[in-house]
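Annotated sample (chain length 131).
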Amino acid sequence: MGKKRSEIVPGGVAEYIAKCPKAVQPTLKQIRAAIRAAAPKATETVSYFQFPGYHYPGEYAYNGMAAWFSYKKPFVRLHIWPVVIKAHKKELAMYKTSVGAIYFPEDKKIPSALIKKLVKESVKVTKASAK
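Output written by the structure step:
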């Protein structure tokens, strides 16, 4: 079960990045910047599985969480709504994916424009999920 809205605490993202290996920190900062550009009104928090996430207050599915990112060697992962991943299956064909995540190799350039596009769509899906 996810955190209750009252338990969403802003912050913790810089600390999450600082705990990761130094070599991957610039890539994590890039994915963070891309998400923030695509979801500027979202609250940054560290939630679900202690991943950095982006929250919108309100009565939404996933407790208002529109996107997350995480690192697990050898990938930087973007976690978004499964329907968004399905809708962009062709664009994502060159990346490993799962139901709710896209896996970007840590040693490759992060596709910021693609991340922004996916996150913007994930925000729309979040907001459309109003209960």
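Annotation: The CA atoms of residues 70 and 77 lie 5 Å apart.
Annotation: The first strand starts at residue 43 and ends at 47.
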